[in-house]
Amino acid sequence: MRRLVAFTLVLLTAGCGARIEPVTATPTATVTNCGRQVSYAAPSRVVTNDTGITELMFALGLADRMAGYVIGPGQAGDVASSPWRADFERVPKLGEQITKELVQGARADLVFAGWNYGFSESTGFTPDSLAELGVATYQLTEACRNGVGRQRGIMPPLDALYTDLRNLGRIFGVERKAEELVEGYRKQVADAEKLVTGHRPKVFLYDSGLDQPFTSGRNAAPHDIIGKAGGENIFGDLDDSWTTVGWEAVVARDPEVVLINDYADGDATTPAEKRAFLESYGPLADVAAIKEKRFFVLPYAALVEGPRNPAAIEAFARFLAEG
């Protein structure tokens, strides 16, 4: 019997170059995903949903294990700015909305998505419905339900990132690569924390929403991005990931900085439009961040769980350190 060894081009983050690493076959791997023990049999036709999830596969050098990816129309800018743009170009884009029909058409053996990152009871696209079709699923840890209604998040956001990298490393037989990434990201975050000064400004993450703002609780990536960069998430007391709040709560918590998500969703789609709305919205007129015009923009793919999170921490830390 000849041993087959597949080689995958591993595209590292900007400035790190590229390397070739063998991907060893893993007949069966068992990991803990969203509190459940799940076994996988060496998937080779993975369908991913969302840019951050897709980039996790690319960062691990697993583009050749993918049947394709699904991303919404508001994420085109993320692809253009991605350190893994070459992988986005060579792996098929299957559509803008993930469905069971799309997954079956791609002959997928694994779907990597999350609640509100593709999985949804309202559309009927759930891990249970895919299991009925014989398709395995892996759920993004940031999006795991935490047992309180539909609230999401079961661990600190960066821990969720490292957990998914290690789990995927086991599932696909690239554990060494996963550990290298985790070690490198931990160092990048630690170096960014050295930039933090004494004052920790209050930060409001603004994703979207005119009637009610969509923001981040303590279980979504922006919470750790803000905290590790030297700020304080004004909604860090909410045991949820991405969630809707009221403008009255924003005013009461008086943020000193607004971190804007560059994501086309809702009426105000560009960062400039979002900033213009915030500056013109009467109830916010006396909020410190608005009066002092302190805004910072990060791309969507840097603010959802994914391999751009450590670089986002560094970028935001430098902004806050400048005062």
Structural overview:
The structure is a single chain. This protein has 323 residues and is an alpha/beta fold. It has 2 domains: 6-190, Nitrogenase molybdenum iron protein domain (Rossmann fold); 196-321, Rossmann fold. The chain is built from 13 helices and 16 strands. The protein has helices at residues 51-59, 76-81, 85-90, 100-105, 127-131, 157-172, 175-193, 221-228, 247-253, 271-280, 288-292, 300-303, 309-321; strands at 6-11, 18-23, 29-33, 36-40, 46-49, 66-70, 93-95, 110-115, 118-119, 136-139, 202-206, 214-216, 232-233, 242-244, 257-262, 295-299. Strands 5, 6, 7, 8, 9 and 10 form a 6-stranded parallel sheet that branches. A 4-stranded parallel sheet has the order 13-11-15-16, sandwiched between helices. Strand 1 and strand 2 (18-23) form a beta hairpin. Helix 6 packs antiparallel against helix 7 (175-193), helix 7 (175-193) runs parallel beside helix 13 (309-321) and helix 8 crosses helix 13 (309-321). It is globular, with a radius of gyration of 20 Å. The termini are far apart. This is ABC transporter substrate-binding protein. Residues 1-18 form the signal peptide. Residues 45-323 form the Fe/B12 periplasmic-binding domain. InterPro entries: ABC_Transporter_SBP (IPR050902), ABC_transptr_periplasmic_BD (IPR002491). Belongs to the bacterial solute-binding protein 8 family.
